Fold this protein.
Amino acid sequence: MASRSLLDHITVTAFSLEAGAKFVSETLGVSLQTGGEHPRMATHNLLLRLGNSMFLEVIAPNRAVQPPLRPRWFALDSLNPQSPPSLSTWVARTPNIQKMAAEASEPLGNIEAMSRGALDWLITIPEDGSVPLNGTAPALVEWHTDVHPARTLEDKGLSLAKLEIFHPTPDRVSQLLSSLDLDAPVSVRQAESSTSARLVAHIDTPHGLRILSTANQLLHQTNHNKAELSQ
């Protein structure tokens, strides 16, 4: 029997697309592809293909248009110019979003119709624009397209090796993923503290395996590695 949900895409949020693109391109060693605009949310994005049915998204507020009358999704309204770009959340694909959302062990938000250019889909969005479980819980998506969006993107030799989820109560996240019947390279681990929930993506690239999480954590790890080499 086929699993009911699959990992669809991982999402990097940023105060601006320029900041998000710089973070991702410097980390992975490849440039991003233009995505488009989300009129209902006043956001826009850039994309990278991670396979035939998986991609990476960088998303930011689109300040060239009027802000929405509601909170933007993915907690984008909480960002300021000093906020580092971050792998903030992820999205699981399902053929029956109504059933899946009802069976999820955690509330994932309202099911809303969204669009970007010629693409249409349904997605779960909390009313306040937050990311459930601090981003460790996925949004659910049901695509209304004949071809998955990843197939329209240029193949730059990237693939997701695994996604690590760190949460202070990992059993809660594991229960959620079980309720979603998720089939994906995802592991759940104990976070170091009650405030350190985070995502860590291990991505195979033409330059070797690269780790994507947040800009600040990347800087900390880089400095840590330099310190070890100098000893």
In short: The helical segments are 17-28, 97-103, 170-179, 215-230.
